[in-house]
Amino acid sequence: MPPAEATATRTVERPAPLPLEIVEGGAALPARRDEIETELMLTQRADESLIETLTRLENAAEVFKRRAELLEACYLAALKRTRPQDWVLTKDRQGSETAMLTVSGADLVAEVYGIVIRGIGPTNEKGEFKPEKTPVPGLDGVYSLRAHCSAFSRVNGRAVELLEFSRRSDEDFTGRSITSTGKLTTTPAESIGALETDLRGAVLTGMRTKAVRVLCGMTRVPVSELSKAWEGTEKKVADCRKGHGYGTSSDRGAKGVADAGVAELVDKLRKDILAAVGGDASAARQLTKEITANKAKGFAGFDSVDRLTQGWQVEQAVKNLKTHPQFGDGGRQPGSDDEK
Amino acid sequence: MNADQVVTAVTTGYADWLSARRSPPITEPRTHVWASGCRKCVRAMALDLLHPGEGWEDVDVERLARMHGGEHKERAIIADLIQIGPRCSPPFEVVEGQQRIEIRDRDGRKLITGKIDGRLSGWKRRISFECKSGVSFQRVDTVEDLDRSPWTRHSLDQLLAYLYAENDPLGLLILDRPGVPHFLPIVLEQHLERAEGFLSKSRVAIDAATGVAPLPPFTEDVSECKRCPHFGKSCAPPLDFGPGARLVADPDLEEAIGTREAARDAHLDYERADRLVKNRLRGVPEAIVGEYHVRGRWQERKVVELPDDVKRQYQVVKPDGAWLMDVERVALTD
Q1: Cβ within 8 Å of A, B 234-293
Q2: Residue B128: how many CB atoms within 10 A of its CB?
């Protein structure tokens, strides 16, 4: 049997189209000229389609099989390029786990699939990128920016037209926003919304990621496929970020991404707090909030030590507990009393 | 205060001082190009005029420190040149520091403006100079080197614009580096076409910024877009991630790759053993090693020995000089 690639590119001699005479206003041809032309165009398109071409070939089934195998290999190669941090896992009510590709992995996958994104709009009369701005009803000052694009893959031939994406100004995605006076801030309490240029950038990034996900079939990837692609590497599905279906954000934070050894430090801190407040649960909650708050950043603090996931957070909380005016030891260091 | 607290206090103080002395970013659109604003992408040049604030919304302390360092170096070099001038033979003077330069169109429209760092006056001529510092400039030896990095390319256009405006035939780029700065002469006549190219690019950018013409087309150099401050803000160019993986259904090629992968370990073993044997028995004409009889001889080889500086003259970097391949098996479905 000849190689599939050679067969697929063989030119097929097609029968010449039948001569068709169009008689203007003739009773024998009631259809109008544009309808006939459309019909002809559709016939030609169908005639030239891959499926039509392949069905005329003797070994069409083999070509289909090889093509499917190659696309499967391409899919796995693209998955293999990604890293655990490029995915967010979600779990539905039935407990089935799927993974969604995020922006950091989209570019890696796009290179394998030869993605082209164009027709990014809308643009203003000068040709500048100007996403459509729409106020969000019921929320004063909040708006959404919406953009669209077309995209296709050079490898699997998929295409998508007018893919839309929008983002709201009250979404927190860069960590910085603007105040009522238009100044940049990183303090949530002062924020009135996102900086519009940041939001535009976020719309473009989101749209790019969405296009890649749609074209490469990576919106809901079964976890088993990720595991298979990462077989023999150090990458593990367990290292992916957890999203919907894995408990509350604080649970995910504490259990999923905690620094090594943080759990022990958190336990010790919990005991210290309870000892300081004499076992009073509500006082312990209040004290936890006070020692984990960051006034400079407008953060009111955590109500449970379980939400501390990083070593430095626990370290800061311990320091704040020691210097707490009511429950702390005044920040005394061993031997500091000797100076008195 | 312990050592950590002292370090934190000083670092914070330094950062606050840098932030406080930062002048507010320019956000008002303008209708002329800065001499330092020549870019490969003319659309970006036009957007620089329409949206000068993009990319300057939030300048981090590191960037402020680098800019401060550049200003500091420039002042230090000029101060040194003032000292060196009278002692040089023949002597020279540093004159016309921070003199404003303007290039206008035939119809009087302002195209390019800038401030020259200074001129060396002596030798019966005036030589404009521009000081540049930073890591990117430390690797620059020739004019060609300037063009290799997007962070250094514009400095040549900047100095050429000054030379063009003042009809100076010669200029100097003074590049700071550890030790004596590097003085790179720039001859206007050799780069006249490039200087005129900057003018015509500026004209197109200004036309777009003033609404006379639409924005110029997107650049085809994607790497320019990746570092452009307007990307994703006022400019959304088409994104092309390349040709993608080529799907090849060739049983012969497939078999060859399979054979290559199967023999990889044996090949590595052979290479390792071959290196060991040749290292140990180099120069030994005949030896018996266990069951093996090994014979060796010297072979004549023609060698051209050149001094390093001569070799460097003939050294060419070819981007497609070698082809490296990684072959990895992708697990297929059952």
Answers
A1: 234-245, 247-252
A2: 24
Give the DSSP per-residue string, B71-117: HHHHHHHHHHHHHHHHHSSS-EEEE-TTEEEEEE-TTS-EEEEEEE-
Write out the residue range of the structural domain in which residue B179 sits. 18-227
Whether residue B154 sits in one domain with residue B24: yes
Mutant choice from B204, B219, B330, B334 vs A, greatest count of A C-beta within 10 A: B330
The residue written with tokens 């290999």 in the block is A73
User: What tokens does A311 get?
Assistant: 């070593």
Tell me how many degrees the CA angle A327-A328-A331 measures, rounded to the nearest 5: 170
DSSP code string of B259-281: HHHHTHHHHHHHHHHHHHHHHHT
Residues 6+ apart with CB under 8 A from A163: A148, A149, A150, A151, A207, A210, A211, A214
Q: A64, A66, A126: best mutation site toward chain B, by most B Cβ within 10 Å?
A: A126
Q: Please compute the mean of the pLDDT values over residues A2-24 and round it to a whole number.
A: 41
Are residues B114 and B151 both part of a single domain? yes
Backbone angles phi, psi at A276, to 5 degrees: -65, -35
pLDDT digit string, tens, across residues A86-116? 999 998 888 889 999 999 999 999 999 999 9
Average pLDDT for chain A: 78
Q: Which two tokens stand for residue B95?
A: 């004159």
CA distance A47 to A15: 10
Tell me whether residue B315 is in a domain.
Answer: no
Structure tokens at B162: 């000054």
Same domain, residue pair B136 and B168? yes
Beta bridge partners of A166: A146
Checking phi first, is residue A192 left (phi over 0); if not, alpha (psi -120 to 50) or beta? alpha
Between B233, B244, B333, which is nearest A72 by CB? Answer: B333
Q: Are strands B125-132 and B170-175 parallel, antiparallel or unpaired?
A: parallel
Find out whether A153 and A216 touch, Cβ atoms under 8 Å. yes
Residue with tokens 């259990």: A255
ipTM of this predicted structure: 0.71
User: B50 and B170 share a domain?
Assistant: yes
CA distance B47 to chain A (A): 9
pLDDT in tens, A177-191: 777 777 777 777 777
Cβ proximity of A321 and A269 under 8 Å: yes
